[in-house]
Design a protein that fits this description.
heterodimer, A: alpha+beta, five-stranded antiparallel β-sheet, 5 strands, 43% helix, B: alpha+beta, 6 helices, golgi apparatus (chain A), TRAPPC (chain A), transport (chain A)
Amino acid sequence: MIFSIYIINKAGGLVYNKDYSEGLSKLTSNEYLVLAGTFHGVHAITSKISPAPGSSGIEMLETDTFRIHCFQTLTGTKFLLVADPQQPSIDMILKKIYEIYSDYTVKNPFQNPEMPIRSEQFDVHLLKMVKSFNGLVANNSIPYNVGSNAGVNASLQSQPHVPSLQPSLPNIASSGQGLGF
Amino acid sequence: MIYNMYIFDRHCQCIYYHDWHRGHTAKTAFDTHGDPLASHPSGGGGGGSTTTTTTMTDPRQGMNMSLEEEGKLVYGVVYSLRNLVKKLGKSQDGFIAYRTSHYKLHYYETLTGLKFVINSDPNVESLQQALRQIYTQIYVELVVKNPLACATITNGQVNPETMGAEGFRNGVDRFVRSLTMFDT
């Protein structure tokens, strides 16, 4: 079960946050900003206090009710995924979020990477993806990629520099289906 | 593999430190006594002369962090994360551990506000139960029930060396060395 997704820019500001289920307590928008800033700072410090040299920052935070997985891009943007401790295929989800982020935010000429993300397309695709993993198969929702495979494949063919994503596609679709039903 | 362990009291004071498999660079920088059993926080000052072997990847290089400063940072991290988790989650003290690419930090807090922190390699399963055992079987037995050790804590003026009464230090050492993941 995916609880929330946060995106933190390289300066520690929260640029996107969305809750997908009731697992976590609701916070005010100010508290979310504080939370993002705290995590950003802690992420920096955790690489400094490593007992073994050359450590990265915090990658996974484990608590009794949820886990926070952090994926940092080379440009310093952090994707936080709050999920159930039993949630499988975390890496794939994070990769998928990054893919959606690249497609609908980075490629948007009106979007400044340091500014809050206000993009309906981004919202919609993220929600679709999360639903497919959360298995919330209501009467109208379809697992991500099942209906839109053709479109995704077409868009991938137009970007030959990301060939690694293509082989993983059937995989995602099948796991989405497996979880969905 | 278990790297090191900290205990903090309620007042952000690092009252105990012990290392086992610290990276060799850090060890020479911090532990001027050589013997891990004899290492204690007061050895942290002697880092300056022996840092020549550090590589570019050593996070401490350039910062020249003493053990005392490092303890404060560790406390800051666990304190922030604990509050973050408390705010986000619905339960009290749910923070168990965090993992980076090179280590995993395990956390256990007692009801009295004592914080036990242990660092291991990232593949180790949860050590919270082990920390709990260190508290109930070693700390309570050898420190809480030891009037001399207690006096040094409640006095307000905490002395980490006297607090780590030899019995406690040996007990922790023996316990941690007996863990299956100690050397693997």
